Amino acid sequence: MDKLTLKDVVLKNLNVLMRVDFNVPLDDSLNITDDTRIRASIPTINYILERKPKKIILMSHLGRPEGKRALKYSLRPVAKRLEDILGQKVKFLDDCIGEKIRREIENASEKIILLENLRFYPEEEENDSAFSRQLACLGDIFVNDAFGAAHRAHASTEGITHYLKSVAGLLLEKEIQYLGETLQNPVKPFMVILGGAKVSDKIGVINNLLPKCDIILIGGGMAYTFLYALNKKIGNSKLERDKLSIAKDILKKGEQLKKDLVLPIDHLVVDKIEKGISSQIVEEIPEGKIAVDIGPKTVEEFKNRLKNAKTIIWNGPLGVFEIDDFAKGTYEVASFIADLPATTIIGGGDTVSAVKKFKLEEKMTHISTGGGASLEFMEGKILPGIKALTDK
To answer: Domain spans of the chain?
Structure first.
């Protein structure tokens, strides 16, 4: 890795300003419903604490408050949860910039401080230089450990790096290692599983990975635009008409590169997408029916293709997994690859939710913490939050 990481710097007696991704889901009573992103930052926090800094000042965004203060977007509940996980006091400050905040940091007896939501200021998303400088004033060194926000050129991810030495945290370093370096030089055979609703979300990923991988397996809603492009009947299944020419181009490119793009050969179909509705397995989708999952023959075909893989990257579920009746295809493939002696990388968003639902996260090599960030990384883009870090 050509950027500085935590392991390259001395932290003793420094105020360490750290960007984390604490953008966690909250219910109507402002209780955190999933603390995965908070837990993901713990190894970096502990690593810094062991090196005896003066303070660790954490900053994050939460939701989309659009530059205005709103109680439902406050990070106060996160401070409480972080305290419970770490087993030590975390001081929560009700703002993120200004002289008052600098004084409170200076006078705090606690080692760990969490600032209020950065996005209460429109200047954060505008990457305003004065706002970036005010954030930078709070620390002696900047650590970015927020992979989920690394695809944004915001004040707390890019702007701040103009004023402080900037290094990658352990989580960010791990994401770069798995999503960057592994994809640059994958151990072959290298297989890609793509799903999710839309072809449009995955065009960049397919174009970047097609020359590098051996096989791409396609399921989920996006498969039906490809099948339609091959003149297959898809009933009322998901179709992006405006992406048909792109789907045809991708299929043609696969042929030219002699790469297999494997599409579903059978399908679980229903009349409408809802719980408890009757379904059937078909090879040709009848008029009016909607495909909601891959069928058993497709599952077997996918397993057969994947069995010798040494590197697997998966982005996007293979069916409407949120409804248990339509989750079988995603579950079977996830369970199968979890037991393979391969590097398995789960790329963000709904795929992570699916793997967690099936309680398989411990068996995967790497689970990405960034949805949009992991997609852009897999597209081969250089993320502004990573590019801005100090070079080695």
So the answer is: 6-170, 177-378
How much is the pTM?
Answer: 0.89
The topology under which CATH files domain 6-170 is Rossmann fold (3.40.50)
Decide whether 6-170 matches 177-378 in CATH topology. yes
Catalytic entry in 180, 204, 254, 372: 372
* Active-site option among 37, 111, 119, 238: 37
**Whether 372 is catalytic:** yes
Q: Out of 198, 212, 310, 356, which one is annotated catalytic? A: 198
Decide if 349 is catalytic: yes
Is the CATH number 3.40.50.1260 carried by domain 177-378? yes
- Is residue 159 annotated as a catalytic residue, yes or no? no
Quick check: is 51 catalytic?
no
Q: What is the pLDDT along the chain (392 residues), one digit of tens a residue?
A: 789 999 999 999 999 999 999 999 999 999 999 898 999 999 999 999 999 999 999 999 999 999 999 999 999 999 999 999 999 999 999 999 999 999 999 999 999 999 999 999 999 999 999 999 999 999 999 999 999 999 999 999 999 999 999 999 999 999 998 888 788 889 999 999 999 988 888 899 999 999 999 999 999 999 999 999 999 999 999 999 999 999 999 999 999 999 999 999 999 999 999 999 999 999 999 999 999 999 999 999 999 999 999 999 999 999 999 999 999 999 999 999 999 999 999 986 789 889 999 999 999 999 998 878 888 888 888 899 999 999 99
Distant-in-sequence contacts of 199-203, Cβ < 8 A, 24+ apart: 199/225, 199/226, 199/240, 199/243, 199/246, 199/247, 200/240, 200/243, 201/316, 201/375, 202/315, 202/316, 202/375, 203/243, 203/246, 203/250
